[in-house]
Amino acid sequence: MARIVMKFGGTSVADLERIRNVARFVRREAEAGNAVIVVVSAMAGETNRLVALCKEAGEPAPGLGAHGVEYDAVVSSGEQVTSGLLALVLQNQGLRARSWQGWQIPLETDLAHGKARIADIDPEAIGAAIDGGEIAVVAGFQGVAPDGRIATLGRGGSDTTAVALAAAVGAARCDIYTDVDGVYTTDPRIHKLARRIDRISYEEMLEMASVGAKVLQTRSVELAMAYHVRVRVLSSFDPPEAPGPGTIICDEEDIVEKKIVSGITPSHDEAKISLLAVPDEPGRAAAIFTLLADANINVDMIVQSPSRAPGHANISFTIPEADLDRAVALLRDAKEALGYSALQSDRSVVKISVIGVGMKSHAGVASVMFKTLADRGINIQNISTSEIKISVLIDSQYAELAVRALHQAYGLDRTPGAP
Amino acid sequence: MARIVMKFGGTSVADLERIRNVARFVRREAEAGNAVIVVVSAMAGETNRLVALCKEAGEPAPGLGAHGVEYDAVVSSGEQVTSGLLALVLQNQGLRARSWQGWQIPLETDLAHGKARIADIDPEAIGAAIDGGEIAVVAGFQGVAPDGRIATLGRGGSDTTAVALAAAVGAARCDIYTDVDGVYTTDPRIHKLARRIDRISYEEMLEMASVGAKVLQTRSVELAMAYHVRVRVLSSFDPPEAPGPGTIICDEEDIVEKKIVSGITPSHDEAKISLLAVPDEPGRAAAIFTLLADANINVDMIVQSPSRAPGHANISFTIPEADLDRAVALLRDAKEALGYSALQSDRSVVKISVIGVGMKSHAGVASVMFKTLADRGINIQNISTSEIKISVLIDSQYAELAVRALHQAYGLDRTPGAP
User: What are the helix (H) ranges across A114-257?
Assistant: First the structure.
């Protein structure tokens, strides 16, 4: 009997009809002889409703209540309700089941209420329950902190709950049911030749998540990588009796047929700032980026190039588009101190990232990228690289053209008509 | 510094505006130097919404999940949300506060999920917290059962939570805030001369609750009586800075000026059944009432009188009106076995109860009642008595007339114009 973990997000448990549908997926795994833990999110919309109530109630005045603790007590109730309802539906369909709240397992967190990290999970009681044939329905997104209060893990935390439970009980796999049927080589909504990826490594999945692929929460992938939990992404909108194969996220060495490039991801949530004619002296760049870091603004894709003014340089970089106004205001206020002559900003940029573990051992990935874009007359503004990712910043009007051209150049196109 | 418990029901915390109003009542007690525990119900309508979800999810098939356990996990979330929100609002208004779930206190119950009884309350942690000046906001209606799961106390259970906490921490009083400003000599909606009662004994309050006065849950009064908790009923719709005095429910010996009769209560939820010409032999009455008891139908006001048929008797009694159809069907099916000749039933009856601890030491209460009703030409059909209550069954068309006449006869009328 294998232990497995299944996780269903908010749209998969949006109402009782959807919850009954989830029960069919669970029944299939239980009847196949597995010992099953199911992790559930709050019903779609419920977390937003509870967060809005907390917002209306107001923030605690400093020193009068620990930040986030009451928020956690209120918002965690959403998953509590879903876990009870799914357990009832399973019982109603003739299966043994019970709900588990985080504090009942217990799933222990740190004290960072509202965005807690998991500290420890006791696998004894829940492991014994599922081995005895009772389905465990766990309220995701929450645990109990050292203060004895409920702590939530932050948005998307149910993915992390599922992966952490899978690690704790030594599950054979952790199936994340969502509203897409897997991870794709690129967004299928913008390119119809995108292919579902059969297997992808943790590292690649992390890079894809970091550039905006919203299939899995980044922390859950980090956790899966650390504990070698085999995660599968599949769709709860597939027929419960025969879901698709989904995408398996696993160790690189478990992927027999390694692609050089696994995916291509456009990220539109970028803006570019250029500071012209900054004095080329030690400490100038540090001053700029310290100013932004102190304001909690993430800087990426830094390029320094010689300025026409001798002894000066132009510095350009990208930041999240949502922070642009704030960053521009900060930099303008510090113009004299920083010593630049002009500031330019640009929202119409897109970051195109090419991701693949094969890059580690294959040269030429970058040159294919540059040549492919050059052939289409697309100018590369900034570049950044990691061991398994190359990102370029281009004019946003070329986003789709670039994705399609690169998708073909790296041999990712699905044969039209093939599945 | 006195410890006090305050309890607010669903209409008092119906939305954030009402919750902010509750916070003003709490602030007043805290600023007066009291150590405060606040018990809250779910926001009005929330429990019904959660119960409906459970109903839609279905009942567990036998043996596949303990009855009521998942219902408790789901429905208890309503109070959890209110407790967090009120704590946030209090913190936001500059007061130290925190929410407490039943399992955090812990408030331990028995295993009767869905209608659990409180087994034990640990007063240490919550007592220390309030003595340290932190307001404790307790989610009412719930605790933790020996199985480690959440258990709810049944409808109205937040009153019981409040009284039990008051007993556990040795509170000076337990204030139950509701939508009426106290307990009245009779329903003020049917008699404008009804007076608010300043003090009433536990025994009288129990009798009033048993005949349908819905101010407090019966179990909370029993608990208050057992532990000598001084309970006060007052209105959350009064100005928070100057609430009215309400009604104090206390030991009989703490009531200096004892009234012979404290209240008069009409109960319309009654129906009468008469079985004519039942053979007057040992065991016949027992057979009738065993049949009804086995069907969980409560019988009250039994009268046996000689029948015109020699060796036979007529037996009449009352039952809750909601059970009438079921009772009639049962008795008809058993007509032969029971041996009666005819069955009559009547829904147009009302039970008028006169309640007062003074009856214990004063004769003549019954005779005043019978004379008063006879003077108005009202026929008494059945009678039942307890040590502090006399109830009569009359034709329901005389209900208001009887209440008003008795209210005057026992000297309960408010002087018109007086408060």
Answer: 124-131, 157-169, 202-210, 218-227
pLDDT above 90 (res B283): no
Average pLDDT, chain A: 93
State whether A87 and B64 contact (CB < 8 Å): no
| DSSP for B341-376, written as a single string | SEEEEES-EEEEEEE-GGGGT-S-HHHHHHHHHHHT
Instruction: Please provide the DSSP assignment of B258-284 as one string.
Output: --S--EEEEE--EEEEEEEEEE--TTH
Q: Where are the domains of chain A?
A: 3-252, 258-419
- What CATH number does the domain located at A258-419 have? 3.30.2130.10
What are B315-330's pLDDT values in tens digits? 999 999 999 999 999 9
Quote the pTM value.
Answer: 0.86
Per-residue pLDDT, averaged over A31-38, amounts to 97
Q: Which of B16, B80, B95 sits opposite A56 (nearest CB)?
A: B16
Tell me the CATH architecture of domain B3-252: 3-Layer(aba) Sandwich (3.40)
**Do the Cβ atoms of A97 and B61 come within 8 Å?**
no
A→B interface, C-beta within 8 Å = 16, 19, 50, 53-54, 56-61, 64-65, 69-74, 77, 80-81, 83-85, 87-99, 101, 103-104, 148-150
Instruction: For B90, name the nearest residue in chain A, comparing CA atoms only.
Output: A60
DSSP state for residue B184 in the 8-state scheme: B
- Picking from B161, B204, B220, the residue whose alpha carbon sits closest to that of residue B387 is B204
Provide CB contacts within 8 A for A152, sequence distance 6+: A71, A72, A75, A76, A113, A114, A115, A116, A141, A142
